[in-house]
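Supplementary Methods, section 5.1.

A reviewer requested that the exact input to the structure prediction be made available. We therefore reproduce it here, unchanged from the version used in the analyses.
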Amino acid sequence: MPIESIWSYAPALGHVVQDQDLTGFTVVARDGTIGHVDRQADHHGMRHLVVDTGVWVFGRSLLVPVGVVADIDPGQRKLTVSCDRAEVKAAPRFRTDSETMDPAYLSAVGDYYHRLPPRESTTG
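The structure derived from this sequence is encoded token-by-token as follows.
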């Protein structure tokens, strides 16, 4: 996957996410729930979700590039990412909202997710 595509939804999801507000959607990894979408943003052409993990990661939020979103179910208000919980937890730490506008931080996050091993699709 080219590094640029980590910041874009998969083409198959284009019709689902067009004008869709994902705030409040439950975020599920391959091995369990991560949290819920607190907000979505697009800074410097780097689309991402800020996910509130609740107590799972001690109340910490995580930044997830939209390119790892594997499936979206608007009816159940749920989205699935293509990695597991440990991989999401090990991503560069999200500390402050200003980081969502910091190209260096966003690049580090994108590079981390881009380097994860490819996964077989769980859908279809």
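The beta strands are 26-29, 32-43, 46-52, 61-65, 69-73, 78-81. These observations are discussed further in the main text.
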